[in-house]
Recover the amino acids of this structure.
């Protein structure tokens, strides 16, 4: 019996006993290097959050004795595929992909697997491919908490007039955020407690596209907007810019996600109402741990599994927290994710 056969048998046994899904590990190719080399293919580095992800991931991998080569595709699918091909040519032992387009990157997984390289989908799911591992936050819960925050603030006897700004259509997460939001909003819409005045998808999650959506919403609805359900802090920032220009900032509730520094500052100032804090350090650390294990050909255990249209992908889901002005200090600041002085600036006690 080969060691690979033993691994598969142990995996099956564990799955039966625990119900957990067991990731395959190193594939056909075993690293000959002392220090494993991990390829990190990123959609973009233009948003604040992804720079944090990159830095924390590299730091953890280095602490585990691994090196990381990073490529960023600038929201371009063709470029991201070329990036992955270049990482494969450089002989990486494991690939970590943050896809711009979850469906388009199925091809990248295929190419990596042909070269015997395991692939971890980071934060965003690659669909239609037999992935080795997916690690992310509970994305539907993100959408639910954003919508619930607004639902809890509907005044008795009145209807909440809402603008909805979704993320990038090519990002599976954007679909999941919307699904979570819908779960909360649909019954309220049916009961006449919420009315959606305007809704659209912000291409590539770009703040300037969110601003255009908000401008169009204001043109259509005038001043009668109570809240903007923006799917992340970048799009919230774009929407708030439009609100500022109309003298409406601070008068309209705005949601977000990521606890970006700029968003935390807006929450303090009162132009943004909430964000979702996702502990990126946990994501980056767990992903680096997993990537190094995959690179070394070691097995991994994931508690959850998500069907991505092609396979039941072993999945690690991390928790999130809703953040307002009331709990900013006890969450984002206490966790060391943001420095008090940065968030509060001159208002810092
Ligand atoms: C991430 C969000 C991020 C968005 C835009 C999503 O896939 O989960 O945290 O704000 O992409 O980059």
């Amino acid at each position: 019996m080969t060691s690979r056969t033993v691994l598969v048998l142990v995996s099956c046994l564990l799955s039966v006993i625990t119900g957990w899904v067991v990731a395959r590990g190193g594939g056909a190719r075993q690293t000959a290097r002392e220090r494993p080399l991990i390829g990190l293919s990123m959609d973009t580095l233009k948003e604040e959050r992804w720079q944090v992800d990159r830095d924390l991931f590299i730091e953890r991998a280095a602490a585990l004795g691994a090196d990381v080569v990073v490529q960023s595709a600038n929201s371009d699918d063709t470029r991201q595929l070329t990036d992955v091909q270049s990482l494969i040519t450089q002989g990486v032992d494991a690939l970590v992909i943050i896809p711009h387009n979850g469906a388009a990157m199925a091809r990248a997984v295929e190419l990596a697997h042909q070269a015997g390289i395991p692939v971890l989908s980071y934060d965003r799911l690659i669909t239609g491919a037999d992935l080795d591992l997916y690690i992310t936050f509970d994305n539907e819960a993100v959408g639910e908490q954003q919508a619930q925050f607004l639902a809890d603030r509907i005044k008795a006897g009145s209807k909440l007039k809402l603008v909805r700004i979704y993320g990038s259509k090519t990002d599976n997460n954007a679909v999941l955020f919307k699904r979570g939001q819908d779960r909360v909003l649909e019954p309220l819409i049916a009961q006449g407690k919420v009315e959606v005045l305007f809704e659209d998808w912000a291409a590539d999650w770009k703040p300037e596209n969110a601003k255009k959506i908000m401008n169009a919403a204001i043109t259509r609805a005038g001043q009668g907007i109570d809240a903007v359900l923006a799917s992340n802090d970048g799009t919230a920032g774009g929407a708030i810019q439009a609100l500022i220009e109309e003298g409406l900032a601070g008068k309209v509730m705005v949601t977000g996600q990521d606890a970006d520094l700029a968003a935390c500052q807006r929450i303090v100032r009162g132009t943004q109402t909430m964000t979702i804090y996702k502990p990126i350090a946990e994501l980056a650390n767990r992903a680096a741990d997993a990537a190094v294990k995959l690179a070394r050909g070691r097995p991994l255990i994931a508690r959850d599994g998500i069907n991505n249209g092609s396979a039941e992908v072993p999945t690690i889901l991390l928790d999130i927290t809703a953040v307002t002005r009331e709990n900013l200090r006890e969450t984002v600041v206490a966790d060391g994710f943001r420095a008090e002085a940065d968030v509060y600036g001159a208002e810092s006690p």
